Predict the 3D structure of the following.
Amino acid sequence: MIQVMDETPPWIHLLAPPAGIQPPSPESGAGTKRHHPNLPESSTGRHDEDAGEAETSLSENKRKQRKSETGKEAPNYAIEDEESSGLRLLGLLLQCAEAVAMDDLDLASCLLPEITHLASPFGSPAVRVAAYFADALQARLVSSWLGVYAPVPSHALERFSQRLLHAFQAYNAISPLVKFSHFTANQAIVQAVSQASRIHIIDLDIMQGLQWPGLFHLLSTRSSSPPSVRITGLGSCTRTLAATGDRLSEFAGSLGLAFEYTGLACRAGEVGDLARLKLRAGETVVVHWLHHCLYDVTGSDAGLLKLLHSTKPRLITMVEQDFNHGGGGGFLGRFVEALHYYSALFDALGSMQDSTNQDRHIVEQQVLGREIKNIVAVGGPKRTGEVVVERWPAELGKLGFRGVSLAGSAADQAGLLLGMYPWQEGYTLVEEGGCLRLGWKDLPLLTASAWEPSLKDAPFSPSTLTEAT
């Protein structure tokens, strides 16, 4: 794993790769409660955002007054206390995770009150990320005792689909991560279908379809005549699928682009009968997949591999979070890797202007917090005991696909994209083996890749898949 640079906040350096981890012990015994100097006392350890901002403003005013009196800049003790609290929080989280890994649920439940007292969904990145990991650990304990926690079921997604839409719109506005996923995949698709007159895109998890208007615009303005476009969007909520289709149809119509849409309320690995995809002769098929941990997208990984092999796509575009979702090192290894990853991600979001705090909170609560809970409480979007894929690129290679380099125009577009977020100078873009990696201070966050069929079509065999743990 690429190490973070020196300018990364000190609390992130506490997190090393999972191998050989020795979680640090807290300064005092389990269950000891301490009052964070920047957080007011409360039964839950939460504090209100306005109070935190007022406190920060007061601290800054005192520093300015001290400077005017002495001519010297006074040390910012609030920041020092914040960093110290972040280090302590991460130490407690690691000790609690170690207790869970050892099935010492009593010790873990004793540590959680102090963690929740120090943590808060508002404040520094360390304090915020700790709040969501503490919530996830609590869900893990409940699941261990009662077996009641599970990922969000498909039938429940409709209840908060509108909140997710708003959250992803906010995510798209405050961070380059969403746009990076869209821009790189769209650019690869445009190049792959430059001569195609009929295009069929199979989106394995279309959600609100925010990616496709950008592609429509590129296709409608290409030098040759625009192609007809058909999208088959897979998802869990029938109403959301229909609404997505209506929005995409309206936008395509405004561009004069011939468009057809079909929504399938099922997971990709459970399509089964290819007739449901209505594949047509003469169409150029493209498959797109954005990985995430909000819920189970694939269903059966073996079923998804069979789908990818059977549809014979001209191109597969994939965007993955840059850490091991499967957690081959067991619970503690998975926890540490996730904590390392989301600490960097929360630090990136924490670099924004104060005016974006509300959007940031929505993103962290509705998207990142749900992902963290799924990873920690149940081990990922699904841990059902079915065979699962740990390394999708390797499996795609076995299916007869080879990587397509994104080092050209896709990389150029991604570089221009980062220029749209001048307040976030810590983002880095690296091309490696034809893939593009977007990171924060050299820690990879997302990897975009594209795949095309090789000359020799490999037979389908799921025998190499591994059992879930």
